[in-house]
Design brief:
Length: 228
């Protein structure tokens, strides 16, 4: 009975880290989306110099581990996010910005591939109807590209959710940090807290990758837009 009570206490304690985990994931995905779609558009429609800069950004950000980025902005450049307030707020912004940089490099590739996968005839038909290139992209190409990007984007969502765990190195109270706190005071709880973390991450990631990813892939194939 006592073991069950301890397990419940550990579970409740770890669950208090969910808000920080989800906030970091939101910052990483939202800003990563904004940066990523901008870079994707540059790489598809920009002049050669802009395309080269976009490609260089992708390669650089993909080559740097997110843990290193979090240490750079959370430890090496702590004053950069002082506007968010002292303590935890600035650390969350530093970690979220790091996640966004890494995610943007991958989201840009996702959206660039999706834009290029939209049949050329869609653009030609839009221009034949009198649309400008900007209007055709905004109302015809990009909406289809977003749908095409959903399966790959759902995988990126899962990656960012799991990468939030790295924020523990700068003291952000994500679920993994709280799990380590439990282990520090009760080493015998190791396997229990690992199991709890595994189940929570599974609940956060599997439904999205399964429903948004596989379901949309099948739907796109029926519409003749998906691969395979």
């Amino acid at each position: 009975m006592q073991e069950l009570q301890e397990l419940v206490q550990w579970l409740v304690y770890i669950l208090t880290g969910i808000p920080a985990t989800l906030l970091l994931a939101f910052i990483g995905l939202a800003f990563g989306f904004a940066y990523g779609i901008l870079i994707a558009i540059w790489r598809v429609y920009g002049p050669p110099v802009i395309q080269m800069l976009g490609a260089a950004y992708e390669r650089i950000m993909r080559s740097i581990p997110v843990l290193v980025l979090i240490m750079i902005f959370g430890v090496g450049l702590p004053g950069l996010f002082a506007f968010a307030g002292p303590g935890t707020n600035s650390l969350i912004m530093a970690a979220g910005f790091s996640l966004a940089l890494r995610s943007s490099a991958y989201q840009s590739g996702i959206f660039r591939s999706a834009i290029m996968a939209v049949p050329l005839g869609q653009m030609q038909a839009a221009k034949a109807l009198g649309m400008s290139a900007l209007e055709a992209n905004l109302y015809i190409v990009l909406p289809q590209a977003f749908r095409l990007a959903i399966p790959a984007w759902s995988n990126e969502y899962a990656v960012v959710i799991k990468d939030t765990s790295y924020a523990l190195v700068i003291g952000v109270s994500v679920m993994d940090k709280l799990a380590l706190n439990i282990y520090a005071t009760a080493p015998q709880a190791f396997f229990s807290v690992v199991l709890i973390l595994t189940l929570i991450y599974f609940c956060f990631t599997y439904p999205v990758t399964k429903l948004a990813g596989e379901h949309m892939t099948k739907k796109l194939k029926k519409l003749g837009l998906g691969g395979g």
